[in-house]
Batch of 3 targets.
Target 1
Amino acid sequence: MKRVTIRDVAALAGVSRSTVSRVMNGHPAISDETRQMVLAACEALHYVPDVMARALAGQGTHTIGIVVPDSSNPYFSALCTAAEACAAEYGYRVILTNTLHDPEDERDAVERMIAQRVDGMLISACSPASQEEHGALPGGIPCIYWGNNHGPHCSFVEADNTRGAYEAAQYLVCLGHRKICFLGGRQGSRTLALRLEGYRRSMTQNGLSPWEIVCQEQTGGLKDWCGAQASAMFQAGIVPDAFLAYSDTIAVRIIEAAETAGLSAPKDFSIIGFDNILFSRLPQIGLTSVSQKKFEAGRTAVTRLLEKINGGQGETSDLLKPELIVRSTCRKRKAKER
Amino acid sequence: MKRVTIRDVAALAGVSRSTVSRVMNGHPAISDETRQMVLAACEALHYVPDVMARALAGQGTHTIGIVVPDSSNPYFSALCTAAEACAAEYGYRVILTNTLHDPEDERDAVERMIAQRVDGMLISACSPASQEEHGALPGGIPCIYWGNNHGPHCSFVEADNTRGAYEAAQYLVCLGHRKICFLGGRQGSRTLALRLEGYRRSMTQNGLSPWEIVCQEQTGGLKDWCGAQASAMFQAGIVPDAFLAYSDTIAVRIIEAAETAGLSAPKDFSIIGFDNILFSRLPQIGLTSVSQKKFEAGRTAVTRLLEKINGGQGETSDLLKPELIVRSTCRKRKAKER
DNA sequence: CTGAAAGCGCTAACAT
DNA sequence: ATGTTAGCGCTTTCAG
């Protein structure tokens, strides 16, 4: 079955190719009669305009590129799905790449997106450094950064992480916890920096000392690393009053490690995660978590990007207010326990 | 920053455009000297060949299209991520669309993929009917169907659902359960049909009567629907010995509904899910599940697709053997309980 | 080994 | 209101 082109339609309808093109693009100056003819021909032939050719001829591609570290991570998965759905509403397609947290892959991905002539990009960089490295590349093509790992001078949509971490930490302090351990995140991540900032502010304000366990390696499985750290900790008999985990997935790993060591939350320690991903709400998990409003973030990012694509100028920045979803992994520490 | 084209490179290197093209494509008949020149020029200009133009000129797009019902579903999310990773290894990009289980969206998606000139497609259809409807469309472009909702005469990669369901049901029977309820799935889904087949075979073999609760509506949230069914059931005081849930996500909903009604697994009933998704392994869930080897499925599908793209003929079919992952949502029913 | 020229499918002035 | 004519950036015979 050969590809059906605009010529075929033109031939069948007995008009010129431009006329067909005009009909396809809703050009006003077309007689109703010919429009019918053409439409009928399209129908008969199952004609679908070739996006490549169209793009080449100067129209946009109606495609937006999404670059994320790992779309199987529920957090990104939600973001991507929301974005895809929102983009589809506006007639945009989405092309997706995972960088697996590798700055080199990230750079390649951005280049390939450009080669693909995406009309715009949604990027969640590995780190501000990696973002700045390829920041110049898009040259003109609109770009919104997702999450917090971006350098200065660019448009972004991010959750207010500092505030989220601060409020979570305050909550733990109010519950009477004093030895509060922040666990997880990769050194160099701005998200991490922001969350640590909120955490530290709370610690300082309450006269407590920060206790931070952060991954220094730049590649490899962060979750596994964190799980191992937690295990080691419990094995050594060290149990904080509470954990502020870098993410829900990490919180779950910590809880897992704890179970193995015969401990559990909230009995032996309280724990809060970040992101409020899908399974945190399961009664069996009931993880108290700082919610990032992923769906809203996905939509906002696409909306902003589309604004830019359609001529919007200037840098935009959306700071989404996080929300502490209280469930059942934290409990009040009684005075005598301290 | 203007787009840099092959002319710019040609000009800088002092050669013709064809020569640049040859270098870019690793054509053998090129003197080392000119190759160096050209490569240097590319480097200097940050030249990246335009994928659109290249596609238009007859080369493939090195893009594969993925059409799934819902990529935020952990099952598809895993599949997509595996596929994306595998495709990337071979230098292929991936473009993704969610159909949200709407046959019309599905058809549109397939058409758009064709318009995008994808070199091949991975499709997880809503139902065999919807697949057959657009089955003719791809006309020549290679296509692998994922999962079980495909009609006859097409290449596919699927898990052996019948066997999986059969073995799961047998396991429940061995545990001493007799009132075993199959809950979930959408009428018309072939996956459902296959699972039911396995379930029924086991029931019949053991002289038990099937008890099936299946969603008849063709759109809308399946998970919510199932949750509601389970709630209604518990509210009415009906509690099976065991559930065979259509999927893990549905199993979790059932468990949730149970908790609300003051019941829990495996105390009050046993339950097995399908898919062994990410969170089923969490100790807090510990859901016994029929594992679908999603990662392997993703890779196999891409591999087969690439074989086809590179000239492979004929229909392929991979039936992946499922595996029952025993965790802690099932228990032996004591004789006196019967 | 390299260049010139034709064309992939479509759009966008410019004519008519 | 419609047809004509150039390209868009690249590959690919076909000559040299």
Target 2
Amino acid sequence: MENTKKTTIHDIAAKLNVTASTVSRALKGNPRISDSTRKAVLKTARELNYEPNQIASALRSGRTQLIGMLVPTINRSFFSSIIRGVEEVANSLDYRVIVSQSNEVFENEENAVRAFLNARVDGIIASIGKNTQHFDHYKQVLERGLPLVLFDRTTPQLHTSQVVIDDYQGAYLATSHLIAQGCVKIAHFTTERKIDIYKERYRGYVNALEDHGIAPNEALVFSGSLQLEDGRAHAETLLQKKENFDAIFSASDYAAMGAMQVVRENGLKIPEDVALVGFLNEPFTSFTDPPLTTVNQFPIEMGHTAANLFFNALNSEKEKIVTKKTVIQPELVIRASSLKKKP
Amino acid sequence: MENTKKTTIHDIAAKLNVTASTVSRALKGNPRISDSTRKAVLKTARELNYEPNQIASALRSGRTQLIGMLVPTINRSFFSSIIRGVEEVANSLDYRVIVSQSNEVFENEENAVRAFLNARVDGIIASIGKNTQHFDHYKQVLERGLPLVLFDRTTPQLHTSQVVIDDYQGAYLATSHLIAQGCVKIAHFTTERKIDIYKERYRGYVNALEDHGIAPNEALVFSGSLQLEDGRAHAETLLQKKENFDAIFSASDYAAMGAMQVVRENGLKIPEDVALVGFLNEPFTSFTDPPLTTVNQFPIEMGHTAANLFFNALNSEKEKIVTKKTVIQPELVIRASSLKKKP
DNA sequence: TTGTACGCGTTATCAA
DNA sequence: TTGATAACGCGTACAA
């Protein structure tokens, strides 16, 4: 099927006996144009079903109205919700979002950023891969004067806008809640990976204990990959060693889920024998038995914030792009897995 | 910060004392060029950090290497997994994916398609909104000779490539499995919405019963929105009416989850008293207690297939675009919620 | 094998 | 307020 020839500003111009420049100005809301011509142009544009060619516009103006968005994994609730948030803001401003994923592979991350630059996106919103150690590809983005916003997984090595949640506070809330429920021997599942967010969660855990007069016990801290299997293994170790513990605060819902399984398989009751708190607010946490207390990171709002920071940077003078770090306060979602005292 | 001036083919041409056309040909692998010039061009391109300007290329060639992808909801596991699948294939072919969501609102769907066309995407991959009744916006896509691939939610009103799963077969498998486990009074949760996929699941349920000599009983069929609350309500109705039933096949995991809660709250055992099968293979189904038997739709593979159909259409002669309907065979994921007989 | 010349559709600049 | 002209960077007939 042959393309129906699209109408251009020249077609409109010809019909009205004006020039393309006039039409362009009328369509772009340029003030230096008479009301009558503007109306005529708009009318004719409608009649001819004119649709602007964004490619031509992009070539001339240097702005594509495209945002490159890079996430580790598209099909994880946390990330897809952030994409959703970004997209809501972007679309309302007539921007489109190109999504790519790194799968935590450094090369993919580099390639995606390069592809974004080739596609001439107006800027990038990204979460750094777990294994990323250097940031030259991101620096290139900044060197070109393009806005770069990092979310969740960020780095102090890049001077650019960021949005994170207060992981420390989330962990502090979670641990304090367990203490308030009467727990005193609280295990913690974390990861050996050198990512700030987990260090912060660990710090929140330790400080909450200390603030409540409980001495942190390193025998109760387990490091792994925070997947379900890790949670199972940690819980089994705890039980085998007959380590004394009455609660687990896991830095990930998945590991918490693994622990829940093992604890129940061993005939112990949740929360009576072991109270349990996770982190992420994954959708499944409300469906477990008992439902899992966890920390909500407000991913959609995080997406909104990332997009807003992006447009702030985009609209600021290039010489002095405003870089800003936004910290979102998390919320403890209290469910049955940690509720020993009836409220 | 000022944009570091990007190098263009003209810069390369100047350095080598050839013309831009020569450089263009060398870079595009055009055979009508000498080996020596080709090598020189490639070498200089590397030295100058040349990156092709896809916008200019798109304007000239009419191909943007962009795919518009429209889903009802980005942050639902099923859809984000399909996006992932599409993206994997697309990126490997140097295409990028622009994602938009309709939120099941018809206007959003129209706007998204229009935005895609304005962005001059090379084609569209979409799932139709629940409330969409007419398809003019999609017809426009086809009239322009652009590839359009529909997935999951499709319509016979559009003559274009589609990929769906065999909902009938999924339901047939699920119901037959329950029968094989000894169930004879099997309830079904479905929806009143006039979407083919649910009709097909209902048909598979009925036929499986009949094929095994069980008379379908309409008193065991419940219609709602298939959300968790609907599942709860249906299960409560079943129990209150003292309706005789020994299994539930729900057309959605969410409603199955609601039923699981109510059944357990009433002191009944799963699967001994009530066997349970859902549909979707949502991530949470492996974390429920007991884990939920369900139907896997292979969303990532569905994304791969959709992308492959897309590129088939893109590469076929415009006069005779090959339209093809691919049906993916689902898989019954058997878990404890339905396993009455130990294998 | 390479060069010439032009156009893709829009916008920016300058002049009127 | 409008017009004329050039340019964004690339690709492609056509010519040499």
Target 3
Amino acid sequence: MDDKRRIILDAALEAFAERGYHGTAVPEVAEAAGVGTGTLYRYFENKEALVNEVYRDAKQRLRAALLVGVPDPDLYRLDAAEMWFAELWRRLGTFAKTEPDAFRFLEMQDHVAYLDNKSREVELSVLAPLWLAGKRLRDRSDGPSVDVIIALLWGAFVGLIKAQRLGYLRLDDKQLEQAGAACWRLVAPDLPRTRGPRSKKS
Amino acid sequence: MDDKRRIILDAALEAFAERGYHGTAVPEVAEAAGVGTGTLYRYFENKEALVNEVYRDAKQRLRAALLVGVPDPDLYRLDAAEMWFAELWRRLGTFAKTEPDAFRFLEMQDHVAYLDNKSREVELSVLAPLWLAGKRLRDRSDGPSVDVIIALLWGAFVGLIKAQRLGYLRLDDKQLEQAGAACWRLVAPDLPRTRGPRSKKS
Amino acid sequence: MDDKRRIILDAALEAFAERGYHGTAVPEVAEAAGVGTGTLYRYFENKEALVNEVYRDAKQRLRAALLVGVPDPDLYRLDAAEMWFAELWRRLGTFAKTEPDAFRFLEMQDHVAYLDNKSREVELSVLAPLWLAGKRLRDRSDGPSVDVIIALLWGAFVGLIKAQRLGYLRLDDKQLEQAGAACWRLVAPDLPRTRGPRSKKS
Amino acid sequence: MDDKRRIILDAALEAFAERGYHGTAVPEVAEAAGVGTGTLYRYFENKEALVNEVYRDAKQRLRAALLVGVPDPDLYRLDAAEMWFAELWRRLGTFAKTEPDAFRFLEMQDHVAYLDNKSREVELSVLAPLWLAGKRLRDRSDGPSVDVIIALLWGAFVGLIKAQRLGYLRLDDKQLEQAGAACWRLVAPDLPRTRGPRSKKS
DNA sequence: GATGAATGAGGATTCATTCAT
DNA sequence: AATGAATGAATCCTCATTCAT
């Protein structure tokens, strides 16, 4: 029965997402996973190793959720790009909905203190594809650079989910899509609008 | 000498911003503040009271930085609204730059666990004015609701600062302004653009 | 295949000699012995039973190494006694050399805490013959009692081996023999010397 | 009240002497010292630091007990040397009697694993003077080298004390002195006897 | 019989909080 | 008022022992 590792990872993710790394006691995780404390230490060398594996695990699921099967957006046609973005946005929404703990945990701030190099590599492996895509899409135009756009978009999405979690708003699919459409204008601001809350143009 | 309270608050903010609530030991804070541990407990009932006061203190400084002296944006003219937004954005930027610890701390996720009601009221006292303003500005249009827009904007800004802190990008004033201009389109997407990186199209 | 017991005893002796009883983990012993932890517990009831058996085993090997085949020293002639002593000394040296772990382990101090009665009997079964022999040899004379002499001699030998192990000196066979000769004078001090580094004086 | 450090050191010495390093729990030491566990950690960084300080402390007391006020034995007259040795032996006896825990602890075997460099220096600072004295005294003769003689003597004394502790014999001052006299022959074997339980010369 | 995964009591260490000075 | 030494509950982690396979 080696899904025990899996079970522990899941329990740890939930606990860390809820109370943070320092706010979570190892035995809490073990109990939530339904195993003895010592058992947890058979699978993970120590608390720090555990949080790193939780991090990488969640991050890789995020990457898969976003990128697997998405056609490389080597598109120079704007509406294709827009559809690509809409797809990403939809996938993000799905991820945040189906794996709220993973999403919340990944967005916590104080990771830096305990993440190891391996985890940092995983971190970059998610960003890099987006960045490259953005590069092709955006670099010719004026306005903010690709890094800035990505940061804004990512932050906007995170802010949306966080606001929902804190109860400041309630999101249905429609609103999520509208939000994505609004955000698209961050990417392609100075071009004729091609979509959004009802443009006559397709 | 009652600026001792002030000194402790500042030291605590820095520590909490850096290592989080659970990652920070009370004696660390006391030492950083240059007072005895016992002294800290004369000013703050316990660690939780301390973090709540730090939170409110920082949040109120943020509110002041954003709102004090900003003319009530009871404006129905779009360019006035845009200027109002640009002003807010600029102020946010200034705050994030001059009080990075405060900004970082306020954006940490795991506050909910220990914030008390009083702190939550303060939280709302910052959002409310923005929300009201947005309400007047936006509600007539279609597209995302005001809550969503505010969440997106706030998140976008936070994402920008966080990316900068993590070293993913470097921001100068120009870029910050451009970012703000881009974000403005989240607010007023389906209206003729009136500003920004100057598009030939009006 | 019941040499498994033997293998475990050997592995345990090495571990206990190196790190002491409390410093040695049972699974370490099992792994060093190449058996499963559970298996070890089939052969030994618990850690304490194990250490007791290790102790008795080692002690009995020491006894055998010292006493088996040594003619009962029912000698009243002094040079016969000296030869008997020299033989014991040589055997001790051989034992310490061929079974350094056994020797080291047996000399550890903190045995008392966990040795059981059976082990204590074994302990005595080694000393008794020596004591009896010494008795016949020495008791008529003045000077230290037999107990004292035995304690001194045994301690002297242990001290020699320990010093060697700690690197304070290096021993070859010649030096070991000389040391034995010197120690003989502890036994027969006030009698004319009959051997040793050759003195011209009788 | 800074004898708290002293009290902890004493309690720790007793516990370590009785049950060894690994067999002693830190809270046991704290309780024996009559302080809280946390207090112990204010005075000693961790268990290993504690045992090292206990070691150095005991070793230095031993050194003082042996060497302080002993006239430098730059003696080439044999009877002066013998008196010097008798004095050392007497002092050793006194130390073993008044500080049995210190003596026992210092003779434990498994120190090597946790002693730090500073402790090892202290170790040598006790041996060195003896070795130098022995050097002058002995090197001209044949027989065992100085290192060997020292190891034998030290071991003999330790064996004596250990035998007493284990109940194999009981020592009074007279017997201790006789034992010392016997041991002197280890040092000066091939010379005419000048003292001991039988000298015509005073 | 053999195994080693699982367990939880126990050990080392930290830290929020108190209180004598 | 200010301090920081003292405390012990709580934390991380280990390891003797069991038991299902």
